[in-house]
């Protein structure tokens, strides 16, 4: 069992992982935690890689004043500034990773790179793809969570947009490829699941994995929380975990949480967790057909096993959509069936499976 996020100390700092500063995780690589405006996730880790040409940053943080100030302070501890940044390699499009990179990159002329799989989400957010409503609202209805869908429909700020700095990146990553960062070679590995276009960056020579939100040391990443939804985000995520597990074991440099010694160990825990949740979802269907929202109501949530009805609206929405992802995978495995009805998609267990 991993240490709870609220108490997790990172070995590079000797302090709580979210404590401000610039902490060396390897020669020429520093972790800079930036604050987030939410209770659950205290910070996002940005990694600054020093080269003779300047800095490459893995992720950029959320485009809020506090995040910008913390990044500037961390860079000053390294004797650097925003103008030393040459490139952002952004693991995925969520605003706590992408939006500050997009803003600062535009200001200083740094290249901002993102996975091509995120284009569908940006097309929706930037209006290039016309939609009648925010797609997440439809996903909540399909999960049987009509009340949550109505609530989110009344609050545009809840749809994940950040109008300050949403734009297309300067360059895209497509497929698995090598990326040169000064004298270093990073393997850019496409790992869909958390989002369509999520990437991790592996430096095999140094034994490091910049994991973004794909592998987190103390929490399980949300699955498929993005405007451009897919039918099987959990299958994609578990296949991506297996893909990373096939790499040599490395030190885990996560976006949220402390530096951890073994990617393999944490991947094994995450795969085991989702198999356990799949079994729990299937057991919940033993009493008859149910929507994802109804199944979510029967399951405990977070490591503290909170009852579903104690969750706030945002986390209840995440729970409903994650439960739907588990149920959709049970359908793909032949253990459940799905039927689209007026109140949402209804799932039923397959007898004898």
UniProtKB/TrEMBL annotation:
SUPFAM superfamilies referenced in this protein's UniProt entry, alphabetically: Metallo-hydrolase/oxidoreductase (SSF56281)
Domain of life according to the entry: Bacteria
Domain Metallo-beta-lactamase: residue ranges: 43-256
InterPro entries, per database record: Metallo-B-lactamas (IPR001279), RibonucZ/Hydroxyglut_hydro (IPR036866), Sec-metab_biosynth-thioest (IPR050662), WH-like_DNA-bd_sf (IPR036388)
Pfam families named in the record: Lactamase_B (PF00753)
PANTHER family reported in the protein's UniProt record: ENDORIBONUCLEASE LACTB2 (PTHR23131), METALLO-BETA-LACTAMASE SUPERFAMILY POTEIN (PTHR23131:SF4)
Listed name of the protein: Glyoxylase, beta-lactamase superfamily II
Organism taxonomic ancestry: Bacteria, Bacillati, Actinomycetota, Actinomycetes, Propionibacteriales
